[in-house]
Amino acid sequence: MQSVRESLRQVAQEARELYLNNSVPYLDQPPTPLEFQRSWLCPNKPFIVRDAISHWPAVSKWTASYLREMVGKQTVSVAVTPNGYADAVHQDRFVMPEERRMLFEDFLDVIERKRAACGVFYVQKQCSNLTQEFPQLLQDVDSHIPWMSEALGKEPDAVNFWLGESAAVTSLHKDHYENLYCVVSGEKQFILLPPTDRPFIPYELFQPAKYKVNKDGSFDVIDVQNAEKVPWIPLDPLNPDLSRYPEYSHARPLHCTVRAGEMLYLPSLWFHHVRQSHGCIAVNFWYDMEYDIKYNYFQFLDSVTKAMSTV
Predict the structure, then answer these.
(1) How far is CA 196 from the centre of its chain?
(2) Spatial distance between the Cα atoms of 264 and 179, rounded to a whole number of angstroms
(3) Are 123 and 100 in contact (CB under 8 A)?
(4) At what angle do helices 64-71 and 104-111 cross, to 10 degrees?
C-alpha cells in the first residue's frame, strides 16, 4: 500500500510540473471563448482578470446608502454563526448556520456596526439569491459572462450575491460548477488546491447539525434528526493539524487575493477556502460543469484515495 501512496504523490507532483502554475496567473483582459476553452477550461486551470467588471454600474453604485435605498426593506436570508464558519466541521459535527430572515437594512446595521449583535452575519444563500432575493440590483450587473456562456454553450445555473463580515469564512470544499467570483468591493483571499491533490485532503463523515441562537446570545448545536451523514473536509488549511492529517504535508496550495473590479475563474472540482475583508461584496456565477473524462478521472482518484484510507 505504501507503493500506491507513493504513486499518488507522484501523480500530483507530475501534474504540478506538467500543467499547473506556481501561482494564479493574471490576465489584463478577458479571454475569448476559444482562448478560454483551449488555455483554461480544458486544462482545468484558474486565472484572475484585472478590471474584469469595471464596466458594471455596481462597482461605483453599491455603497451602503445605495443598497439601503434599493433593497433595505427587502427580507433576505442571512447566515448566522458564532465563529464565522458556516457549513463547516465543529465538535465532530457538520454544522450549518442558523438561517435568519431579516430586513436587509437591519443586516446592514450589523455590518456597519450600528447595532450590536451576537454572532457573525453573512448573506451567503446560494441557489441564485441575487435573482431571487435582490432583483432590484440586477440592473447593475451583467446577467451572465458572455465569453463564458459562449464557450460553454449555456448561461449560468445560478447568480449569487455575497456580503458579510471579515470573520465570515468559507471552509475548504469543492464545487461541481465552473465558478466565476466577481469582487465588487473589498477583497477575497483564496487558498486553492487542484483536484490532483485529492489524495492529501482528508474527508470524513459527520452528523449534520445546525446552530441555534438562544435569547442570551449563546449558540447551541442541534443535530438534524434522521439525516444521512455528510462527507466533509475537517482540515483547516490556515492551521492544518499535520499530526492528524500527515498526508496534507504533500499538498501544494496556491494563495491569491481577488480585489475590487477583478474576477477569479475557479475550475470545477478545485478545492477552495475563502476569507474576505469586512463588508466585501461579491457576485458569483455558477455554470454547470461537464461530466466528462476529467470528472471521471477525478472520481477514480477519489475512489482510490478512499480505498487507501480504509487500509
Answers:
(1) 18
(2) 8
(3) no
(4) 160
